[in-house]
Structures are given as C-alpha cells and as structure tokens.
C-alpha cells in the first residue's frame, strides 16, 4: 500500500540558553495509508516533537534542520518542510488534511469559547459552508462520537465537560474536516483507564470505518498492542526499532525495546517477582555524542557501540533495528550470567 | 449571570457603607473644629453662642446618630453646604463634575484602547520595534511623575511652540466641542501616560503568556490564519488580567486628576478638593471622597462583569486551572 507520510532523516534542533539541542536525529518513518502507527518511548524521547514537526507547529525555538517530510494528498506529493510555516498551503493541510489531538484537553481547549464554536471554527475555515450548516454537522459528529445531548452540549464551555467528554470534543475538532491523517499526541494519558479504553475504541473505529491513517504517540505499551499496525520505538531522538506490531511487540530485537516491554507490569505476573526496570537514567540530549544513545544503559554494550555511528539494519519484512550487536538472524548475543546479574 | 451580578452587588453595598463610615469618623477625628469657620471670632468669645450653634447643627447628638443622619441626607441627595462659600455642595458638584469626568473618562478610554492595541502588537512581535519602543515608553511613564510630564508638555507644546492652549477648559468666546478639544489634549495626555505605560506592559506580558497556552496550538492546528488565532484566541484570553490591573489603576487616575487639574487650571473636582483641603472645608471633602470611593467601587464592579463575560469560568466561581 502507498504511503501517506514519509519522514526521511529528519533532524530537529532547539535553541536554548545553553546552546543548541539536537532533539531529533535522522528520524525516518513511513506511514502507509490507512494504517495505525504507534510511536512509543519514554518521556523526552522526541515523540511529541516528531508530531509537531509533521504539522510544522514546533515551538518558536525549534527548527527542522535537515531531512524531508513528505505528505501525499491524493497521490500529490507535498514537501511539508519546504512550505511556509503559517502560509496558506500549510494552513490548508492543518485541520483539513492532518488533524491533531492533544493530551491535556482542559488546556488545549479555549476556556472562553463554547465548544461547538471551537469545532465549527475548523469547518468554517476549510469548507465553504454557512454557520448553520456547520452547526448541524458538528452536532451530528458529536452524536457519532458519543457525546450525550449534543444540541445542548454544543453551547457548553470546556470546563463544563468531564475529561473524557472533552477528549471527544478534541477528537471532533481533529476529525470534523475528515482529514486523511490524524495525529494523536498521548490522547489518553490524562484519563481514567475505563475512559482510555472508550477513547481508543473510538479512534480505532474511526480508522477502520473511515479509512483514516492514525499516528498515535504514547508511552502506554498496553494500548499499543491493542490498536497498532506498525510500531516505532524512539529513544533519545532516534527511531531505534520499527516494524509491524507482531515484529516489534512479540519479537523485539533492540535491547531498549526488550527492556521497555519487560518493564510493563502484567496482571498474570507473580507478585513476588520484582518488576524489571530499564537500568540507569535517560541521558540529556545535550550529553549525546556519536555512537549508540542507549550504550550507557545497555547490558550488551561493547566499545564499538560507543564509538561508531550505528546504522539501521533491516530484518525480515521491513523490520528495522538500530543495533550492531545483532547477528545476521537478528538475535542478540547470549549474556553471561555475571553480566546478566550486574 | 444574574446570580453573579447579585452576588457582586451584595459585596459592593457593605463595602460602600464601610467606606462612608470611615470617611465620616475620620473627619470627626480631625483636631480642626469646623465650627470655627462658621462663627465670627467675636461671637466665638461667648461659649453660649458656640453651644447654641452646636446644638442647632446636631453636634451634641451621639456620634452614631450623627453618622446615620449624615448618611440618610446623602441618600436623599442632600449633600450639605460648603463651609467656605455657603454654596450647596450639589451645586458645586453639578458645576465641577462634568469637567473632571470629561478628563478622566477621556484618559481612561484613550489609554485603554491604545494600550491594548500596542500591547497586542508588542506581544505578538516579541523583540520587535513596537515591543522595544513600548518598553522605553513604559520606563518613562512609570518613573516620571505625572505633574512633571504635565509641566514639561506645557512648557514645550504650549509655552514655547504655542501649539496648544496652556490651560483652562475653554477659551473665552468659544462654545463648541471642537473649540474645547485643544484644551483637552495636554491634560489628557499627561493623565494617560502613566496608565498607558503600565497597561501596555501588562497587555504585552499577558499576550505572551497566552501565546504559550496549549489552546493556541490547537487553534493553529485547525489551520486558522495567524490574525484569527491572535484575535479570537489570544487577545480575548489576555484581556482578563489586564482588566484587573485597569481596576487597580483607576484610583491612581483619580488621584492623578487632582494634580493635573491643578497644573492645567482645570475647573474640576480635583481643584475643588485641593481648595477645600486648604481651608478644612469638611463637608466638601467628605462628599467628594465618598463620591470618588463609590465611583471606584462601581468601576471595579463593572470590571468584574466584563471579566465574567470574557471568561465564563469566573461567574461560576470555578478555579482558573
């Protein structure tokens, strides 16, 4: 299937007081049309920055230094990173072709405007329709998204909604213009587990029924296994492993992915077994030198890992791993007992 | 909304009463006996004369009764008489109030509109020309006293360049509003500049704060043009804090008008108060203080209403995140 979005060697830097931080390093991703891609990784690994770079809404001090971001609009290739940030072409993509869902729904909705207006705003911007038509459409969408009493809720303010309902409103904003691609940046992190499940079901349904492409940014591995087709694992600004959901979750190859999956608590697990954590601290982006970013915490580390630039190796069908310790079959060397207990 | 307004009024009324009590009792604490200016020194030599006067004016009643009587008369619109001139105070007010209102309201409207416009531009283009220029203006406006700016403007624009009249509200023989306008420019400019300086900075900072809020990112993610993001998302949410500062600065505007009226010989309440204070004309001082206090209370009440329109969370008593 053809791709709707391609990121090729994207580098993003942030200017801070101390100098320049290299936040994204050679990030390459391919998102097939109609797929559900999950981008996972711990806080600060560059997941959200990746999303912001795609829609060109990086903070003022951030910048796409090099690389290309291509979006395919009905077969037409658009080089997003060459479009003017607030130019009409880019604005025509945002909202209309690429929808965004944010994490903190209370702060992401304007407290002074009624929610209906906030959703309709996007419609009125991109489509040639009257205010009344927009209102009808929004109310219809509210109904579809499971917002009870949509006519009355249209006139309500964000603070009058619960977190889950607000997230439905956010989803309405992101999808009202029927964009081809929806990027959800940790949409369920601030919600109760039961509400999380409802929201994820809603997103998955949207993907299946409307044939939309989703990029879900999350650190919740349980969610990933439920919804994802493809998974990209990020660590400190790099994609360290990419593949379909079976490859990455059932057969993880990168030591970081393995550690990450082992640190997911399971209900079936014996209470007496200590939960595994990833040893050590995530280094600051300012400390990164050449070599593997994970070297400091990796049990399989060798001198070579620290000194050479690590290439992205392919195994099987598009299963890519950034690790030089893998053999031709993609297996990591056996750890000696002493090293394992270390 | 109605419930919110009623709640606010329920707060404003006791406050107004408290202020009236403070004004009344404070005036009675003064060591200066207002009776002295009501009676000729010869008559005052005989204590019985003083006693008769005291009895007749109600000074022998218990002080709370006096306060109550004074308050009822105030409510009836009977503000009493000036000790100095014997004129009814309501007459003085009718004569002087329009001039002061003209001055203060012009300054308020002009400084608010200018400050919001300049502050928005300065905040939206942080570090740009407007931002830097407004910072310089703020430094001047905040650090240099009103009366000095007034005198400097007077010296340059009126005295040396002769572009504008040096004072008064109107020149002899002129009647229309446009005749009066040149007289208004210097006093209003003087009064506005401090207010303007502070408000520009607050608006600018408030705009910068709002720009960092997440909902601005949401607005941009809808593909709205920047002017729309600025106008309907950033600006409206930046106004709340500015309104609070506006309410806080109002008393300073009233205080400033006293000085400005004196510098520009403006025939308003301010210059009346200055004259009343110099001769201990207590009835006038009390009425004017009370009026100013009530006006400021009313203004802050209005600001509350405006705030509740800008941010619906205010009227529901919800916390602001």
Explain the overall architecture.
The complex is a heterodimer of chains A (342) and B (321). Helices cover 32% and strands 24% of the residues of chain A. Chain A is globular, with a radius of gyration of 21 Å. In chain A, the strands form 2 sheets. Chain A has an 8-stranded mixed beta sheet, with helices on both faces. Chain A contains 13 helices and 12 strands. Residues 337-342 of chain A have low confidence and may be disordered. In chain A, a hairpin with a 2-residue loop joins strand 4 (62-73) and strand 5 (76-79). The termini of chain A are far apart. Chain A is an alpha/beta fold. Among the domains of chain A are: 109-178, no CATH class; 254-341, no CATH class. With 321 residues, chain B is an all-alpha fold. Chain B has a single domain (2-31, 79-315), classed as Orthogonal Bundle (MetI-like fold), CATH 1.10.3720.10. Helices cover 77% and strands 0% of the residues of chain B. In chain B, helix 6 packs across helix 8. Chain B starts with a helix and ends in a 6-residue tail after the last helix. The mean pLDDT of chain B is 82. At the A-B interface, helix 2, helix 3, helix 4 and helix 7 of A face helix 9 and helix 10 of B.
The CATH superfamily of chain B is known as: MetI-like
**Strands of chain A, count:** 12
Topology, number of strands of chain B = 0
Task: Give the CA-based shape of chain A.
Answer: globular
SS element count, helices of chain B: 13
* Weakly predicted, low-confidence segments of chain B: none
What is the number of domains of chain B? 1
Assign the CATH topology of chain B.
MetI-like fold
**CATH architecture identity of chain B:** Orthogonal Bundle
Distance between the termini of chain B: 21 Å
Rg calculated over all Cα atoms of chain B: 24 Å
Give the strand order, joined by hyphens, for the main sheet of chain A.
6-7-8-3-9-10-12-11
Helix content of chain A: 25-40%
Radius of gyration from the alpha-carbon trace of chain A, in angstroms: 21 Å
Largest sheet of chain B: none
- Tally of separate helices of chain A: 13
